[in-house]
Each structure stands twice: as structure tokens, then as C-alpha cells.
Specification:
Elements: H1 2-5, E1 6-7, E2 10-11, E3 13-17, H2 21-31, E4 36-40, H3 43-51, E5 56-62, H4 70-79, E6 88-92, H5 95-104, E7 108-111, H6 117-141, H7 151-162, E8 169-176, H8 179-186, H9 188-205, E9 211-217, E10 220-226, H10 232-244, E11 253-260, H11 267-280, E12 289-291, H12 294-315, E13 319-328, E14 335-347, E15 351-353, H13 355-365, H14 368-390, E16 396-399, H15 402-405, H16 410-420, E17 428-433, H17 435-439, H18 441-453, E18 459-463, H19 469-473, E19 480-483, H20 485-490, H21 495-511, E20 515-518, H22 523-532, E21 536-538, E22 546-547, H23 548-558
Helix pairs in contact: 3-4, 8-9, 9-10, 14-16
Length: 561
């Protein structure tokens, strides 16, 4: 009981409003046993008391008073966002007045005369408790940044709502593309401002009178709304209006849509499918929306199968490491000098699975770390076998994904593998992609410096494919630059690509690091690269990626010459 009547050692406050002094004193005698009481003799005095103090837990309000009656007090309180939360119990003996006051917003009534004090006090306690419980629920149902529902409240509300829906509805997942960069470039305050504005625009354009929405994670929103044939114009308008007030003029949205019509599919599953459709257009320039389709469903099921099978694939060695040779071309003849490790998956039931299917999937969900560790150990074991068998060390570059960069034990794991096979750190070359720099430059710089301190040689893959290339070179100490293969494919047919290749080779020469050109397929490409001073090439002109035994055959021939 004490818990209901006191907060933090202070009594809750009750405002008693009645024009008759005897009634005020009677109610005061009853209520003051448990609450601090404040008195007003008419509606105007009550509003004056409330205007300067919103800490009241309850208003006991007479209806028939001079100056300002109780109905006007209820009306004014309901119109004020600060006062609407304070429950009002009206005091009257007229049945018609009771009904009218309840319709206006009062929560209960006490009948005059006040002949049962225990009942009056019990009603006050019950109403205050209910009001405070409602306030607690209200404070947790809304996301503080966007103003939309929280995820938990959204799905709880949706479960009740879905039982009574007759109109066709859709589940939408809306994502702000590369939102983390906005926080990094412009600060958290700018990011929160965009999230708040997004919530307002969703409410205005998609949820007004026919839907609800929530923010499920940092930059992802779920929307349940009346079906439309085309959401592209709406998403485009939200995007345009967000850009108007944002410092990020390239801000981009994408949305996935799922028809909310299958009663056997849970709400969570519907929105999971909408999110899958949304994720499918990540990085696809110009596309704002994507509907979940049968094709996408089959692909989602396929991906779930891959996720479920990857642990067995590692355990049963269904994964295989292939090696693509790299040739040093500045000399009398090309010389096999190193290799790149590439993973392949031969599934026992599904057959060969393209790396393009499982590598992006595992990079997204973090499972790529398990694949990478398998490749690192396989590559190290192969380097050791080649040294023991042929007396030569062929360094192998291995992928270090963006997910690996955030592993606090990355350096120790690589060092442990080197020790297990008695290799030098320079034998196993971590290969990082340029895109990892744009994700988290500070973390990447820190990791690269620690790896180099341990003796590892760092190879930068796909150089030139991102916006941060030149800036990155001033920040990250690297040992090898690998040119993005797209430049090599286009350099003989596009003058600009040719000039870019020349420029990168000149930059690498200035930095005193070798350049690897990948994707070399023609003799004309090889000759052009040699003339520019490119150090090393790889590609189908010399060899496709080879399984370990065939790479060994190539190595044996190379060193028997």
C-alpha cells in the first residue's frame, strides 16, 4: 500500500476542487491520510494550480461550480499534453453528468454524499496505480529517437490488430543505406536528426490512419500499412525530403515489400521476408524498392541451407582451397613467384556452389570468419608441404574479410597458424579489400599496423574500386597493391582505364611497393602491363585457380627448368 501512495519518500499529491468548503474538508480528511492535498474552490483556481505544477497524481473534481465549472476543467486538461496524463475523478450526484464527464475524459466518479470513506480512498488508490502503470507502458512503447513504436510493442500490437483486418495490407522494411557513414562523417547528432525525421515522414506518408511503424534497429524501420500498387514514389519522396534537411546530400533509402496476406505466416516472418527483399537491392544504384517473390523465397531457403551446412562443410572438408599462380613479369621470362588462395565448395547434395553465392552471404552474417580460418590453415599447410617437397617457399595471399578486421584476436590467430607450420609471417600474406577502409578506417589502420609489426606483409585487394583510394594510401602502410581487375579488362578498349592503370603503377613505384594486376587474360594486356612497369600478374592467361595437386604439378615444372 505504501508503494502506491509514496514515491521516493514523498507523498503523491491530490488536487481537490469543490466550491463548498465542507465538501473540501470532508474529502481532505479522507484523502490526506495517504496523500498530500491541495485545494481549489472553483475551476479557475484549479487551472492556476495546475498551470504552475504538473506533479499531481490525481484530481478530485466537482462539476457544478461558479467562475469555471468542472466540465471546462476536464476540457482544458484534455487539450493540454502535460495535463492529459493526470487522471480526473468527478464528484456528482447526477447520473447524466457522470456519463458526460466520462465521455469527455474523466476516468471515474464518486457519488455524493461521501458516506463510505474506505471506498473513496480505495478508488483513489486504484486510479493512481492504473494511471502510473499506463505511463510506464507508454514510456516503453515509443522509440525515443524516431518517435515510432519499439519493436516489441509493434509486434504485440500487430498481433492483436491482425485479427480484425479486412483490407489488404503490406509489410515494409525501410533501410537507410550506409547509415554508419553519416554518423562517422557528420556526428551522432546528425544521425539522430535523420532518424527522427524519417520517423515523422513515415508517420505522415505511410501510417496516417492506415498503418503503424517501428524502428527495429539503428537504421531499419518496419511499416505495416494499407496495400499500394507502387511504393517507389513514396520512398522517393521520403528520400528527397530527408536530403533537404540533411548534410548528407547522397542519403539513399531502400525498401522491401511483402504482401501481408498469408494467415499461416507469423508477423515476424512476414517482416523478415520484407527485410530480405530490402537487402537484395543493397548497392543496386537507382533501385528504391523490391517486392518479395517466389524466386527470392527460393533463394532465401537456399541461403538458409548454406548457413546450416557450413559447419559440416568445414568439418567434412567439403570446402577446398584452390591456388591461382602469380607471375613476376619483369625479367627474361615470367616466373611463378606467389599465389592467391581461393575457396571452393563442393556440397555433397547441392553440388558445386559458386563463391558468389556463399561468400557475400557469410560476410553479411559473420560466418565468413569460419571459412577464412579454414583457408588460412589450409594455405599454411600447403606452403609447408611445398617447401618440404620442392625446397622452395611460395608465399600465398589469403583473404582477411571486413568481419575479421573486428576480431580482437585476429593477429594472435594468424600468428598461431604461422607457428604451427613453422613458417615466416611473410609467407602468409593477409589480403584486405579497399572497401574495409570506408567501413571503419581507424580500426583497419590499427589492425594493419599491428600485423606489420608482427612481420606480416599486407596486400591491398581491388585497389581503385572505391572512393577512398588515394586518401587510404596516405593512412595505411601496405606492402603490395593489387589493381582492380575491371581496369585490366577495359584498359585496351578505354583510354581512361589505361591512364588509370599507368597512374596506379606510378603511385606504387613512388611508394616503393609492387603492383599485382589480376584478371590478365590476353597477351596484349600482359605486354602493356610489362611496358608500364607492372611487377606481378595473375589471370587466365597463365592459369586459372588450381586445386592443390595441380598447383604442385605446375610448381614442379617451374622449378625443374
Amino acid at each position: 500500500m505504501k508503494k502506491l501512495m509514496e514515491t521516493g519518500g514523498m507523498k503523491r499529491r491530490v488536487l481537490i476542487v469543490d466550491d463548498e468548503q465542507i465538501n473540501r474538508e470532508l474529502l481532505g480528511a479522507i484523502v490526506s491520510q495517504s496523500y498530500e492535498t491541495v485545494y481549489a474552490s472553483n475551476g479557475e483556481e484549479a487551472m492556476n494550480a495546475l498551470s504552475g505544477d504538473t506533479s499531481f497524481s490525481l484530481i478530485l473534481l466537482d462539476l457544478l461550480m461558479p467562475v469555471m465549472n468542472g466540465f471546462e476543467v476536464i476540457e482544458r486538461c484534455q487539450a493540454d499534453d502535460r495535463l492529459r496524463r493526470v487522471p480526473i475523478i468527478v464528484m456528482t450526484s447526477e447520473k447524466s453528468a457522470e456519463a458526460r464527464s466520462i465521455r469527455m475524459g474523466a476516468v471515474d466518479f464518486i457519488t455524493k454524499p461521501y458516506d463510505v470513506p474506505e471506498v473513496i480512498l480505495a478508488r483513489c488508490e486504484r486510479i493512481i496505480e492504473m494511471s502510473e502503470d499506463k505511463s510506464i507502458i507508454s514510456s516503453t512503447e515509443r522509440d525515443k529517437v524516431s518517435g515510432l513504436y519499439t519493436r516489441g510493442y509493434f509486434f504485440a500490437y500487430l498481433q492483436r490488430l491482425a485479427e480484425h483486418i479486412e483490407a489488404p495490407m503490406d509489410a515494409l522494411a525501410l533501410d537507410i543505406d550506409r547509415f554508419h557513414l553519416i554518423n562517422e562523417l557528420f556526428g551522432r547528432q546528425e544521425g539522430d536528426s535523420i532518424l527522427k525525421r524519417t520517423g515523422e515522414l513515415i508517420s505522415e506518408l505511410l501510417c496516417e490512419s492506415d498503418g503503424i511503424a517501428c524502428r527495429v534497429e539503428s537504421d531499419v524501420f518496419f511499416i505495416f500499412c494499407k496495400r499500394r500498387d507502387d511504393y517507389e514514389p513514396v520512398v522517393a519522396e521520403i528520400q528527397a525530403r530527408l536530403r533537404e534537411g540533411s548534410r548528407s546530400r547522397n542519403l539513399r533509402l531502400r525498401a522491401g515489400i511483402y504482401n501481408f496476406s498469408d494467415i499461416d505466416t507469423s508477423a515476424e516472418a512476414c517482416f523478415s521476408r520484407a527485410k530480405a527483399a530490402c537487402d537484395r537491392i543493397r548497392g543496386r544504384f537507382g533501385a528504391l524498392t523490391e517486392r518479395y517473390s517466389r524466386e527470392l523465397h527460393e533463394r532465401t531457403v537456399f541461403h538458409e541451407r548454406l548457413i546450416g551446412d557450413i559447419h559440416d562443410a568445414v568439418k567434412n572438408r567439403d570446402l577446398t582451397v584452390y591456388y591461382q599462380p602469380k607471375y613476376k613479369i619483369l625479367g627474361d621470362r615470367p616466373v611463378l613467384t606467389s599465389a592467391e588462395a581461393l575457396v571452393r565448395w563442393n556440397h555433397p547434395e547441392l553440388g558445386f556452389i559458386s563463391p558468389g553465392d556463399f561468400i557475400p552471404l557469410f560476410e553479411h552474417n559473420g560466418l565468413i570468419r569460419e571459412v577464412d580460418r579454414f583457408v588460412w590453415r589450409e594455405a599454411a599447410a600447403h606452403i609447408r608441404r611445398c617447401r618440404d617437397r620442392y625446397g622452395v617457399t611460395i608465399p600465398v595471399s589469403v583473404n582477411v574479410s571486413r568481419v575479421d578486421i573486428f576480431d580482437p584476436e585476429l593477429e594472435d590467430k594468424l600468428a598461431e597458424i604461422i607457428d604451427d607450420f613453422s613458417l615466416s609471417p611473410a609467407d602468409l600474406m593477409p589480403e584486405i579489400t579497399e572497401s574495409a577502409y570506408s567501413d571503419n578506417a581507424d580500426r583497419l589502420i590499427e589492425v594493419v599496423n599491428r600485423l606489420r609489426d608482427k612481420g606480416f606483409k599486407i596486400e591491398m585487394d581491388d585497389f581503385g574500386s572505391g572512393y577512398s583510394s588515394l586518401n587510404m594510401l596516405t593512412s595505411i602502410p601496405i606492402d603490395v597493391l593489387k589493381l582492380d581487375m575491371q581496369f585490366i579488362r577495359n584498359m585496351l578498349i578505354d583510354e581512361k582505364s589505361m591512364r588509370l592503370v599507368e597512374l596506379v603503377i606510378d603511385i606504387a613505384r613512388y611508394l616503393e611497393v609492387p603492383v599485382v594486376a589480376e584478371g590478365v587474360e590476353e597477351e596484349a594486356q600482359l605486354n602493356a602491363l610489362r611496358d608500364m612497369g607492372c611487377d606481378i600478374v595473375q589471370g587466365y592467361y597463365f592459369s586459372p585457380p588450381l586445386p592443390a595437386d595441380r598447383f604442385d604439378e605446375l610448381l614442379e615444372k617451374e622449378y625443374q627448368k
